[in-house]
Every structure is written in structure tokens, then in C-alpha cells.
Specification:
Largest interface: A-B, 54 and 54 residues
Order of helices and strands of chain A: HHEEHHEHEEHHHHH
Low-confidence stretches of chain A: none
Mean pLDDT of chain A: 92
Radius of gyration of chain A: 21 Å
Oligomer: homodimer
CATH topology of the largest domain in chain A: Beta-Lactamase
Distance between the termini of chain A: 41 Å
Structural class of chain A: alpha+beta
Shape of chain A: elongated
Number of domains of chain A: 2
DNA sequence: AAAATATTCGCCAGAAATGGGGAGGAGAAG
DNA sequence: CTTCTCCTCCCCATTTCTGGCGAATATTTT
């Protein structure tokens, strides 16, 4: 397995297009010896990318119904850091149960193991392996392969990001220190009066920073600027 | 190395306090055979945690001077997904060069390899190994150990998160679908008129959602609510 | 079946943010 | 040494947001 994964990662790194990457992702079924493999990148709602071994109908339906909003796998992984077995997710709630029914009907395996991956600029993706092994067997299997799955997820996501934007580094607008300060205060819930006091500057000066940050970020208003700065990692709150 | 790392990860997972974790992190010097090892978690500006093998004086100084804002290692990793060699970072700019000088004087190795790690709720951390090997040797060394470093970073961060908040899962407020819609529109830069039109509801109804979301999130104002929702992963823009 | 949420609608007045002007000094990069 | 970005301060008119009042139906959970 170790050797196969090493070889596999090399083939992933040699991919040059999303089509090739998609092929590599499907190859993973053999490497990991599971029924299904999924790489699902979720950025803006509605701007998702998925490469998987499910039916195309399921993908279409899933996206059309915005299932990412109720899918406990997505929702659970959004709140977690470590890979998680599907059985440990929260399947209570009508929407989740209904979704599960439809998913199983569509051929999605009842066992699954998903790893959340996060990149810069708020990027989020899921890497999943799914199968129909029994509970006991699946548990042993996943325990034995956590690290391999983590590494596969990492390198696939790296490649996806690289293909998408040409390099590892995102070239985003740069904000001056004071602009960062200003946006940070606002993101913490301060209004302009409080923020300017915290920074020991006049309220007018604060506004200049907010203004310039907004224009640098191409934001329509302050809230938009905060949202952009946060997702771009320019401001940490 | 493979075997040693496996054993090491088990010892990391058995740590029950930050002190123990700190011990495990220092042990990594032997596992990886490098001079310095650093785990640096950056959440709010000013709420950082670091566990490392540098001098306590350097840590104090670093935090006091807010060096995370100019440190090219931090800034570079904030924009990257894949581990990066320090030499490939952007050291131009007076602030960065001055910082480098002070760092080297403080005993920080001139070679370094850092991996960015991101968790839920906007959590961000860096795992770094640093040494004084020559360029050529260091390059070969890091190439050979990327995967080990990635895994070490992952499990250390997992443990740090677990110790910090008791479990892998963050238990955050849940928003209703419409509340998410409302905040999403605002985060995209729409004002209330545009947002309510997009959602085909009255402006007043929109306000109700914003209000309830704000109270659920314990936010002081709309901007604060957006910021919280974004960093908590409740809203994806 | 009862309780709790979620979704939807309206009006008004005061508070806050925005847009568009203008201007000087300090420091860094080329 | 010139150019550029950064930091700092000020006014006014208009738009937008916030807070506080109240209320009905539908869906989900307990």
C-alpha cells in the first residue's frame, strides 16, 4: 500500500488538467480498493467542483438541490479537522434522513470516510472514500488507512488548486497594516467610533483606511470588504 | 523513519495537556533529526500559541513586536496550501530583511521548511522544521520528508485543537437556511434592498433573518455577524 | 398534541455609514 | 533624487442601517 500510494501521488502530480486529475481520482478506487472515491471542492455556493465515481445523475441532482447544505458529510466536515467516519456524523433531522435515503438509492455506499481539507482564501474541499463493507471491517480498514487517505486528499487538493489558478500561491490584493487594523476592528464588531478609538486615530482617518481597503479589494461596501478580507486570509479574527 | 514517525504519532495522540504536547513537539527534533521544530497557531491577532525549540526570549520578542505580521514565513504560508521552503518565500522589503537578521541572531536556523495547516472556524497554524544544513543537503532532505512533515503537522494540530476545545468538533450556533441565505447575500456585497430582491422576500423579512442570526451568533452588528458566520464556516462565500 | 422554530409581512424615527471633495508629511523603492 | 505608497486630518449631503413596536402560518421536534 505504501509503495502504491507513493507511485500514485507521483501520477497525481503529473496531471496537467482537470480531466487528467479526474482520471487519477478514479484510479484511486483500485489503490484504496473501495467502491467510490470523491473529491468535492466547495467554494461559493453554486461554484462547486466535484470529481467522483458516482453517477452523473446523482451529481446533477445533488447540485441542483443544493444538497451540500443539508448533507451531514459536508456540514460535519465543515466543523471538523480530522477525517471522520460517516456513522459518527449527525444524521438526526428530517432533511438529513431524507437525503440519506436518496443517496443510498442513487448508489452511494452506506459506509464512508471523509477528510476535510482547507486551503488559502477560504477554500474548502472534501475527499471521501465510500464502500459497502460491514461496520466492523470498515472500521478496521479506515483505521489502517487514515494517513494514506489524508495524504491522498492533500496531494489531490494541491493539484486541483494548482490547475485552477496556475500556482500554489494566490496573488491577492495586499492591504497596508493600518488597513488590516481597520478591517480587523470592524470584523470584531466595533463600530467606527470604537474602532478609531482603539486604534488611536480620528474617525475620519479610519474611514480613509476602510475606503482604500474597499477599493483595493473591489468590494461594494464595508461588509463585502470584510468578507473578502476574511476569506482571503488578509484579516484574521 | 516511517516506523519512527508511526510510533511518534501515537505518542502525540496520547498527550493530554499542552505541556505534554509541548514535550512531544520537542521530541520531534530527534525524530526528524533537525535543530528546531515549531508549532505556531495563529488565531486572533494577539491570541497565538507557540510551542518550539527556540529561546523563550525570541518568543517573547516575536509576540511583543507582532512579527507574525511581517514574518514572510507566516505571511507566505497564509497564502499557500503546500509546504514551502523558506528560500522560496518573498524576503524582499526592508521589514522582512530586518526581521530575518534578528531571527538569525536569535538562533533561528537559516534553513527552514514550513507547512500551513487550517482547521475549522478559521483556525490557522504553522508547523516548521529548521536547520543549518547546506542548501543542497536541505533540499534533498525536505524533498524526502514532505509527507512525514505533513502528517506530523496534521496530528500535532489535531491534538492541539482537541486539547483546546475538548473535541474535534466545534459546537457552534446553527443558523436556519434563510438566515444563511441572508448573511450570504450581505457577505457578497449586496445591500438589504438587493439581497431581499434576490431572495424574493420583503426587505423587512430579510431584516428579521439578519436580526435572528445576529442574536444567535452573539454579534454586535451585521458586519460582526457576517465575520463570525464566515469564520465559523456557517456561510461560504 | 403541545412546544418550539422557521418563514413571512409592515411602519417610523433616530443612529450610523457612505460618497465625494481636499491636503500635508514620512518613509521606502527604484 | 524622484516617485510611490502609507499615514494622518477635516466637512457635508445622502443613503442605509438599526431598534422597537406587532402578528400570522407552516413545519419540525418533543
Amino acid at each position: 500500500m505504501q509503495g502504491r500510494l507513493d507511485t500514485y501521488i507521483e501520477t497525481v502530480q503529473s496531471a496537467n488538467s482537470l480531466d487528467e486529475l479526474q482520471g487519477r481520482i478514479k484510479d484511486l478506487r483500485n489503490v484504496f480498493d473501495v467502491e467510490h472515491v470523491v473529491y468535492h471542492s466547495i467554494n461559493s455556493l453554486g461554484q462547486q467542483y466535484a470529481s467522483h465515481t458516482y453517477t452523473p445523475e446523482w451529481e446533477t441532482y445533488y447540485f441542483a438541490e443544493n444538497f451540500e447544505r443539508i448533507d451531514p458529510v459536508v456540514q460535519g466536515c465543515l466543523r471538523r479537522f480530522h477525517p471522520v467516519d460517516w456513522r459518527r456524523l449527525d444524521w438526526s433531522g428530517k432533511a438529513a434522513r431524507d437525503f440519506l435515503g436518496e443517496a443510498v438509492d442513487a448508489g452511494v455506499g452506506h459506509q464512508g470516510f471523509s477528510v476535510p481539507i482547507r486551503g488559502p482564501s477560504g477554500q474548502f474541499a472534501l475527499f471521501t472514500i465510500s464502500d459497502r463493507r460491514s461496520d466492523a471491517v470498515w472500521e478496521k480498514y479506515t483505521e489502517a488507512h487514515v494517513r494514506d487517505v489524508i495524504l491522498a486528499a492533500h496531494f489531490i487538493n494541491q493539484k486541483a488548486l494548482e490547475i485552477e489558478r496556475g500556482s500554489d500561491e494566490a496573488d491577492v490584493a495586499k492591504l497596508s497594516p493600518r488597513e488590516v487594523d481597520a478591517l480587523t476592528m470592524l470584523a470584531m464588531g466595533y463600530n467606527r467610533a470604537q474602532a478609531s478609538e482603539s486604534l488611536s486615530i480620528s474617525e475620519h482617518t479610519l474611514r480613509v483606511y476602510i475606503e482604500s481597503a474597499r477599493s483595493k479589494l473591489g468590494a461594494a461596501n464595508t461588509t463585502h470588504a470584510i468578507a473578502k478580507a476574511l476569506t482571503l486570509g488578509l484579516v484574521i479574527v
